[in-house]
Structures are given as C-alpha cells and as structure tokens.
Amino acid sequence: MSLRVIAGTAKGKKLLSVPGDTTRPVMDRVKEALFNILQSDVIDSKWWDVFGGTGAIGIEALSRGAAYVRFSDLNREPVEIILKNIANCRFTHQTEVRKGDAFSMLAAQPDKQFEYVYIAPPQYKEMWAQALKIIDDHMGWLTDDGTVIVQIDPSEYQEVELKNLVEGEQRKYGSTLLIFYDQV
After folding, report:
1. Whole-model pTM?
2. Count of domains observed in the chain
3. Which of 21, 37, 38, 168 is most buried, judged by most C-beta within 10 A?
C-alpha cells in the first residue's frame, strides 16, 4: 500500500513506509474521515503523534494547517522514516521527533500542551488503554479544549475507567475504530 498526503500544502507527497510489520499505516479513507471530523479545528493546532510509525497522521495535520507536531516512537527505524517523511514534505521547522518509550514520555512532567494527542499503538496489546490512562493522570499535556484520539482495531475496544477524560464519539471504518476522548 502506498502512503501519501491526501490534502493540504503537501497534497500528493508520497510517504515512506516502515519495512516489516512493526507499524500499521492508516488507510486513506480513515485519514480523510478523521480530518473531515476535525475540519478547521486543525488550523494552528498542536499535535502529539505518540506512536508515530510513518508519521502519516501528524504530517497530514501539518499539511492541513497544524502549527506543530511532536512525533514519538520507540524504535530507530520508524524514527528515521518519520524524519525522512517530514523532510520530504518540508515540515522540519514545525516538528520535533523523539525516540523513546511512549509510556515514560506520557508519564513525564508535561513540557508542552497539545490540542490533539493521537494514539495508534501496535495492535492487540492493550497499549492504547495504558497510554490513555497515563494521559488521564497527566492532563497537563492537553490544552483546556484538548482531545485524545485513539485508533485501534474494533475488537480491541473496551471501556476504560477515567477521571478526567470522557469518551465522546466512536467512528468505525472497516477494521479501524477511531475513539475521541474529551475532557470532563
């Protein structure tokens, strides 16, 4: 499957994929649907693409007018692919890429606030719920109107007990489920 930016200033730019099966690239129709839901709220927003993979979601956000995206990934190969994809789309000056454990980063003292934190971890390991709970305990990562967006396989879904976030809407696209969590 060839990855590309589907709209905005970098529309049509091809994105490199991470070889192997350590990442799962988001389908164009899911990306399109996500950004149709958010629409103009993306403009001037700050994002954290927590399990960055190829960087496709954060790059799409930048292409559509986001001001800044932090990408993070545990492994060297995805980090290198993200850096190449960012450079190819000419977004280097609006980004930061961190290599490290997502859970440790999320549990750290917040150094920036984001309108959107995007969680699309490796599947079937309940990592999304763990990341969501850590954010719920560290709300300083989110602006007052910040949203956490989770991308998982629908079979992974479970209710997560949260204190500061509440599940909003769910959108299902084939084997992908997007869940939006807003502040209480």
Report:
1. 0.95
2. 1
3. 38
For residue 173, give the CATH number of its domain. 3.40.50.150
Give the residue among 91, 87, 44, 35 at the shortest CA–CA distance from 67.
44
Q: Which two tokens stand for residue 89?
A: 């789309």
Look at residue 77 and tell me whether its pLDDT is greater than 90: yes
Which domain does 138 fall in, by range?
A: 3-183
Are 85 and 73 in contact by the 8 Å Cβ rule? The answer is no
Please calculate the CA angle 23-141-30 and round it to the nearest 5 degrees: 35
Residue type, 112: K
**Mind listing the pLDDT tens digit for each residue in 99-148?**
999 999 999 999 999 999 999 998 878 899 999 999 999 999 999 999 99
